[in-house]
Specification:
mainly alpha, two-stranded antiparallel sheet, globular
């Protein structure tokens, strides 16, 4: 009974006190559900989003929810801002790494590709804002997943950088291993999942005393109304 009463008051209060977080959380959940439904229907890639993998929106939605939950002791605007920065950075850092992998150096890129690369890199580096203000941290777990990402990505390059779209190698294979399409897909998705997990653990849950102090500071700013 008490739990039902708590839930009946929690969401209305959340909508009033943290409207940006509430809307962002609802959108994140809807994105996750929509992407999963499309994937379960057999759509591995989303044509509407320039053929991205169907699981990518799921990872973006999870990162948004993770950020909102971790930063529940911060202001509404701070939580949503860092959540959006983290999600955008995750998308574009992988795209930037993937793009430059075909050329090796930025100055070898055609002008149109270089322009896209610079935009992607600039967006990816916005994640430094979160680190600068102490909202993101390079935890031990995130370092482990970053290391695993580097190892798997280097392996992908050494075996010829085989592509999901064509099933063929983009480069000469230093390590000659015959890859099936399923193996190519697993390596491709594996690198992105590892990057996602690194970003997921950039958000470290603050100690309870920090949450209490943050909530106390917000409460102290509210005017006291005499009865």
């Amino acid at each position: 009974m008490n739990n039902e009463r708590h839930l009946s008051t929690y969401f209305p209060n959340l909508m009033i006190q943290r409207p940006l977080s509430f809307v962002t959380g609802v959108v994140a959940i809807l994105v996750i559900l929509a992407a999963l439904s499309l994937r379960l229907a057999g759509n591995m890639y989303l044509e509407q989003l320039n053929w991205i993998d169907a699981f990518t929106p799921v990872m973006i939605g999870i990162l948004l929810l993770r950020a909102l939950y971790t930063m529940r002791g911060d202001t509404d605007l701070q939580a949503v801002s860092i959540a959006l920065i983290g999600a955008l950075s995750f998308i574009f850092i992988y795209e930037a790494i993937y793009k430059i992998s075909f050329y090796g150096f930025p100055w070898l890129m055609p002008p149109s590709e270089l322009r896209d690369f610079l935009i992607q890199s600039g967006t990816a580096f916005t994640v430094l804002v979160g680190f600068a203000f102490g909202k993101l941290k390079l935890s031990k777990t995130s370092v482990v997943f970053l290391g695993l990402f580097v190892v798997l990505y280097v392996f992908w390059i050494l075996v010829g950088f085989p592509q999901v779209e064509t099933g063929k190698n983009a480069f000469y294979a230093v390590i000659n291993i015959p890859f099936t399409w399923n193996m190519i897909y697993a390596v491709n998705r594996g690198t992105k999942v590892l990057m996602f997990l690194a970003y997921f653990f950039f958000y470290s849950n603050p100690p309870k005393d920090e949450i209490f102090l943050a909530q106390a500071a917000i409460a102290a700013k509210k005017p006291v109304v005499d009865d």
